Amino acid sequence: MLMRTKLIVAAGVAAALAGCGSIGALDTPNASVPRATTTTLIYRPAIDPARFTTRVTNPYWPMAKGTTWVYRGTKDGAAQREVVVVKRATRRIMGVRTVTVEDRVFSGGRLAERTTDWYAQDAVGNVWYFGEASRDYDRGRVSTRGSWRAGVDGAQPGIVVKAQPRPGGPTYRQEWRAGVAEDMGRVVGVGAIARVPAATYMGVLETLDTDGLNPGRREHKVYAPGVGPIQARSTGSGPAEELELIRITRP
User: Which of 175, 245, 247, 249 could connect to 70 by a Cys-Cys bridge, CB 3.0–4.6 Å?
Assistant: First the structure.
């Protein structure tokens, strides 16, 4: 998923980070209520293809075809560049026609990761994540670990941007395939100002992501109205990563 790293920009976020040891209850619009068993969490959102569209207009991440975001940052001290493009192609997943987004990450000038992500927006404005096909390149080796598609091998879609985000709400699932994709999110701020090389943005949305496969890792994301993701930073265990938007090109 785009920008797996996050950056803190508003007062009070540190407190939210400190208090997120427990992910709390799940809040998944358009979905059945998850219930715990002795072995795993049962999560099956009720997906009605008629309630979804490829016209993604959520103000915190509009996905007009042809839009390109360019980010720069670091990973463990090495320079990193990320290019994200909304493609014209679509793909049907679980009966839902989804938007195709290509995400390429370059480290030291070389391609380190190429990912194809699929998104759709529901009738009330939530942006759902339906899967990814990822390829990581490392010293001549290629790994597709982390790839998943809703409806295959028990994988289920989740919400990446809520229609009406409010701080302090419950945690929500962003993706689900047991042992492969277990990211969750929580809104920690709405309304702050964020400055990145691309511009200064007001009224940003801030979310805190956690990973069930790496409980010590925290990712803070910042979204600007009318733009989409603009900043990111990872905290806790795992590689230290930062990203920020340097340019957006619209169709």
Answer: 247
